[in-house]
């Protein structure tokens, strides 16, 4: 997920970011969360000057997101299916797991190389529900209450599209969209919806949250959004 670009950043904010970066050098991981809170709302790239600025940025389109865990998390596959299916976290963990190690590329420019993701291939969940002939696309809903994304059915069935339960060799954290997020390896990271709770088969592609603001629906890295990034690999 990414943020709109072009927001002015004043001199005080720039100096504040640099000051926060200096403090982070001294305090190390104790201030990393504070640094993340600044960099996640910085569309200028100035936060790349901060220690740790080359890693992930944490984005949300709402003020706060409730946490869910094994006792209350569910993922529902519905819409144009033969039978709606609801999976608990334990159900997903019991299914065959696929591991992908791939670069993550954000449409705002930053990249993290060689990130391991593990989870269930989305195609396996679609097969469990039974896709009806009228379905040509998949819409993804999230328990933050606002975010959404979509893929064509062919895209959703790719081997490198996961319902991810693990990231960087540990369970997906709440900040990274856990306990379950979507991971679409060859596309810009806004397609990999966080806090995933609904997979809906639809008759046509429905634009996702950022696509209503002009981002491309088909978000292949290096071939969309007016960017020439190297494809992720």
From TrEMBL:
A Pfam entry, by short name: Oxidored_molyb
UniProt keyword annotations, A-Z: Membrane, Transmembrane, Transmembrane helix
Domain Oxidoreductase molybdopterin-binding: 63-210
Transmembrane segments: 12-31
Stored Gene3D superfamilies: Oxidoreductase, molybdopterin-binding domain
Highest taxon listed in the record's lineage: Bacteria
Name of the protein described by the UniProt record: DMSO/TMAO reductase YedYZ molybdopterin-dependent catalytic subunit
Source organism of the structure: Kitasatospora paracochleata
């Amino acid at each position: 997920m990414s943020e709109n670009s072009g927001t002015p950043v004043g001199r005080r904010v720039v100096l504040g970011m640099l000051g926060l970066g200096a403090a982070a050098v001294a305090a190390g991981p104790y201030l990393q969360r504070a640094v993340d809170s600044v960099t996640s709302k910085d569309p200028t790239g100035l936060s790349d000057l901060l220690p740790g600025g080359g890693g992930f940025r944490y984005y949300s389109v709402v003020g706060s997101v409730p946490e869910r865990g094994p006792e209350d998390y569910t993922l529902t596959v519905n819409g144009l299916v033969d039978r709606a299916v609801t999976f608990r976290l334990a159900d997903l963990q019991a299914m065959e797991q696929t591991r992908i190690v791939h670069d993550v590329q954000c449409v705002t420019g930053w990249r993290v190389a060689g990130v391991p993701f593990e989870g269930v291939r989305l195609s396996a969940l679609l097969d469990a529900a039974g896709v009806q002939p009228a379905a040509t696309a998949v819409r993804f809903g999230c328990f933050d209450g606002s975010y959404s994304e979509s893929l064509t059915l062919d895209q959703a069935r790719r081997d490198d599209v996961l319902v991810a339960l693990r990231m960087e060799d540990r369970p997906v954290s709440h900040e990274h969209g856990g306990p379950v997020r979507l991971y679409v390896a060859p596309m810009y990271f806004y397609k990999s919806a966080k806090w995933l709770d609904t997979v809906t088969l639809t008759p046509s592609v429905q634009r996702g949250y950022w696509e209503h603001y002009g981002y491309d629906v088909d978000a292949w890295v290096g071939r969309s959004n007016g960017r020439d990034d190297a494809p992720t690999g």
